[in-house]
Design brief:
The chain folds into two domains: about 1-85, no CATH class; about 90-300, Rossmann fold, CATH 3.40.50.150. It has twelve helices and nine strands. With about 300 residues, the chain is an alpha/beta fold. The strands form two sheets. Strands 5-4-3-6-7-9-8 form a seven-stranded mixed sheet. It has a two-stranded antiparallel ribbon with strand order 1-2. Helix 2 (about 35-45) crosses helix 3 and helix 9 packs across helix 12 (about 295-300). The structure holds S-adenosylmethionine (SAM). S-adenosylmethionine binds next to helix 6 and strand 4.
Length: about 300
């Protein structure tokens, strides 16, 4: 059947149809079958991602066809996220190495980094920033890249994640980014930041167990966050004020667990960020607003 396929466009179209037929999930970096198919075809052919449309008609050799079809087969049979098959992912316009040591970079926080965190920073100066739960290092390294005058720390508890982040730091020449192993803030004693950004684990236990097979290739440590998905976010809210400068800002992703957070802390003035596609479960909050509700936040965090 595949003998009828000839050009780059043929294979991209074929892959997208096969992915759709197999019922794949596209939650990792690309959100649709055509983009994933394009990513895999161009990777197998060693072509750049921004190749001109005229090359779509170029025909593949027999060897190239075999390589493309082998990638499609692994994507379908093993449900491996496309970024793990290609070994790379784009985040905030930068090309990161991506493999099973850390989650595939995909946080909407990329959009905030590219827009300089405005209007949330409101022009306040930043000298130091923290990316808590850095995984592949994507948020820390992108912040460091776009703000060369900032000192950025990227923190994770996982040695695997930190080894991938270290490779990405070198890959993207992020000399102003430093990687630290720490269980949340415990290893950051005395460190204070003007901006703390975090995409911690926030998937509930039930949701983690029910996730499509693609997610099983990612470290469970990066996803699972207790019965309501807030085990990490509440501890971060409790401990962030001690590590924020007086006018510091916390930006935290909680995804679908936003509604649980609003139920637990309806009185806290979380500012939910609006993205081009709407709300994505990411809030911004000033240090002083956290402190005003610190007692209640600490009570809830202590139950975790
Ligand atoms: C949702 S992933 C986010 C990774 C990365 N920031 C991104 O956006 O792709 C959460 C990360 O938190 C890390 N993590 C889990 N528990 C942690 C803890 N107690 N302290 C620090 N990092 C932790 C995991 O290893 C994982 O890399």
């Amino acid at each position: 059947m595949t003998a009828e396929l000839s050009s780059i466009i043929d294979f991209i179209r074929y892959g997208a149809s096969a992915f759709g037929r197999a019922g794949l999930t596209f939650g990792h970096s690309f959100d649709n079958a055509l983009d994933e198919s394009t990513q895999l075809v161009l990777h197998a052919l060693h072509l750049p991602h921004d190749i001109g449309p005229a090359y779509g008609q170029a025909r593949l050799t027999a060897e190239e066809k075999t390589a493309v079809l082998a990638l499609f087969k692994r994507r379908i049979d093993e449900r491996i996220p496309a970024c793990y098959l290609t070994g790379e992912a784009w985040f905030a316009g930068l090309n990161f190495k991506s493999d099973a040591r850390a989650l595939v970079p995909r946080s909407p926080i990329a959009e905030l980094i590219e827009s300089g965190f405005e209007p949330w920073l409101g022009g306040r100066p930043v000298e130091s920033a923290l990316d808590l739960c850095t995984g592949s290092g994507c948020i820390a390294i992108a912040m460091a890249h776009y703000n060369p005058e900032w000192r950025v720390d990227g923190v994770d508890i996982s040695d695997d994640a930190l080894s991938l982040a270290a490779e990405n730091k070198v890959r993207l020449c992020a000399d102003n980014c430093h990687l630290i192993k720490s269980d949340l803030f415990t290893g950051l004693s005395g460190k204070v930041y003007d901006l703390i950004v975090t995409n911690p684990p926030y998937v509930t236990n039930d949701e983690t167990d029910a996730l499509p097979k693609e997610y099983a290739h990612e470290p469970d440590l990066g996803l699972r966050a207790g019965d309501d998905g807030l085990d990490f976010a509440l501890k971060i809210l409790r401990d962030a004020p001690a590590h924020l400068s007086e006018h510091g800002l916390l930006i935290c992703e909680v995804g679908e667990s936003e509604r649980h957070l609003m139920q637990l802390l309806p009185e806290v003035p979380f500012a939910w960020v609006e993205f081009k596609v709407g709300q994505m479960g990411i809030f911004a909050i000033d240090r002083n607003d956290i402190l005003a509700h610190h007692e209640r936040i600490s009570q809830l965090a202590a139950q975790r």
